[in-house]
Amino acid sequence: MYRQLSRRLSRLRRPARATGANGRLVDCPDCGSDFVTPVAWAERGETHWWIRLRCGECAFTREVEVTNSEARRFDRDLDRGLAQISAAIDRLEQARMTAAAHALIVALERDLIGPGDFARR
Fold first, then answer.
1. Is the predicted pLDDT of residue 17 greater than 60, yes or no?
2. Tens digits of residue pLDDT in 73-116
3. Distance from C-alpha of 61 to C-alpha of 79, rounded to nearest angstrom
4. pLDDT: is 55 or 8 the higher one?
5. Are 32 and 17 in contact (CB under 8 A)?
6. Cβ-contact 115, 104 below 8 angstroms
7. Phi, psi (deg, nearest 5) at residue 63
8. d(Cα 86, Cα 72) in Å, to the nearest integer?
9. What is the dihedral of CA 65, 40, 7, 13, to 10 degrees?
10. Which helix or strand (DSSP H or E) is residue 108 part of?
11. CA-CA distances (angstroms) from residue 84 to 32, 73, 94, 100?
12. pTM value?
């Protein structure tokens, strides 16, 4: 527990960097994961945005002020991440449905179930 508290305190003392190691807002400057999401945001004039960011992996939170172009790039990065998550969900759902269909086929082949098991009562 002491180590966790010490690590969190050291994070608070460190100045927050606007971007992760490779210059993207979705990258956490603390743990390096690409699970950073916006928690709150507001326009700062016509050319800048204030954004509060939180890492979904380590919970590191920081506030940044970025230009409109940086905000657009962040939005595109978030969209790409969402597309990756959606594709992973689709793959998992397909695998689940395939396994369920296979189990049904095996049960039918072994006469473990029949039409009466599906009749309304």
1. no
2. 999 999 999 999 999 999 999 999 999 999 999 999 999 998 88
3. 21
4. 55
5. no
6. no
7. -115, 135
8. 21
9. 40
10. helix 68-109
11. 18, 17, 15, 24
12. 0.67
